[in-house]
Amino acid sequence: MRLVLLGAPGSGKGTQAKLLMDRKNIPQVSTGDLLRAAVKAGTELGQKAKAAMDAGELVADEIVIGMIRERLAEPDTANGFILDGFPRSIPQAEALDKMLEELGQPLDKGVLIDVAFDSLLKRLTGRRTCADCGQMYNVYFSPPKQEGVCDRCGGEDLQHRADDNEETITNRLEVYQNQTAPLVDYYKAQGKLVSVPGEGDIEEIYTRLTEEL
Ligand code: AMP
């Protein structure tokens, strides 16, 4: 299964991608996670990407497309992958199609996780990620059982992402509307679009999603 997960920041793409990865054994490839790891490690790529990420802008295509090209060349993606946060613009989607055509592995579906714009701000400001295992929480909607402690691994460092502040969020949502939302029509035109309502319980959304696949 070769999937792209589409949706605004805060729509729950990462949460659903991680569930799919755990339960279907298909790797999640998140450009956001890869970029954050590069920033944390202080690599040259991370240094180049940091300013755009802090401002909520898109990182240059050559950086993210190169990253995806390298990642999709790794053997664990041979039986499929879930792209989360890539592509984020029409040029990136075209580059992906070309890359997958060369590999003889076309995309199966573009899955839109559809969430009303008004609920995104609260979803983003409430978001927390376990520094140890990457499990995601939301202090308003899906908190851990014990405050500050990860249900999955027991880690006690639930972090708030630097770019989940109101000012940067506003810009990220605008970038999504202008550059990423057109991908819905792009995949519709290819007959690959599936749309899943992204409000409500995480498990319900997962069930809806897998029923569509
Ligand atoms: P995410 O974790 O997907 O919300 O991504 C966090 C940030 O990383 C974004 O706000 C962008 O600055 C950058 N980023 C992630 N994926 C991409 C991409 N496909 N193209 C450009 N920038 C990206």
Describe this entry's structure for a reader.
The chain has helices at residues 13-24, 31-41, 44-55, 61-72, 90-103, 120-125, 166-180, 182-189, 202-212; strands at residues 2-6, 28-30, 81-84, 109-114, 127-130, 136-138, 158-159, 193-197. It is built from nine helices and eight strands. The chain is globular. Strand 5 (127-130) and strand 6 form a beta hairpin. Helix 2 (31-41) packs across helix 3 (44-55) and helix 4 (61-72) runs parallel beside helix 5. The longest helix is centred in the C-terminal third of the chain and has 15 residues, at 166-180. Adenosine monophosphate (AMP) binds next to helix 2 and helix 3. Adenosine monophosphate binds at residues 9, 31-32, 35, 52-53, 56-59, 64, 85-88, 92, 163, 172.
Strand and helix map with partners:
Layout: E1 2-6, H1 13-24, E2 28-30, H2 31-41, H3 44-55, H4 61-72, E3 81-84, H5 90-103, E4 109-114, H6 120-125, E5 127-130, E6 136-138, E7 158-159, H7 166-180, H8 182-189, E8 193-197, H9 202-212
Parallel strand pairs: 1-3, 1-4, 2-3, 4-8
Antiparallel strand pairs: 5-6, 5-7
The structure holds adenosine monophosphate.
- Stretches where pLDDT falls below 50 for ≥5 residues? none
Strand content: 15-25%
CA radius of gyration: 16 Å
> The CATH topology of the domain at 2-115 and 180-212 is what?
Rossmann fold
Q: What order do the SSEs take from the amino end to the carboxyl end, as H and E?
A: EHEHHHEHEHEEEHHEH
Shape: globular
Major sheet size, sense and barrel closure: 5 strands, parallel
Put simply, the count of helices is 9
Q: Please bin the fraction of helical residues.
A: 40-55%
The number of E-state strands comes to 8
- The CATH architecture term of the domain at 2-115 and 180-212 is 3-Layer(aba) Sandwich
What's the pLDDT, averaged over the residues?
A: 95
CATH class of the domain at 2-115 and 180-212: Alpha Beta
User: Which structural class do you get from the secondary structure elements?
Assistant: alpha/beta
Find the CATH superfamily of the domain at 2-115 and 180-212: P-loop containing nucleotide triphosphate hydrolases
Give the end-to-end Cα distance, rounded to a whole number of Å: 9 Å
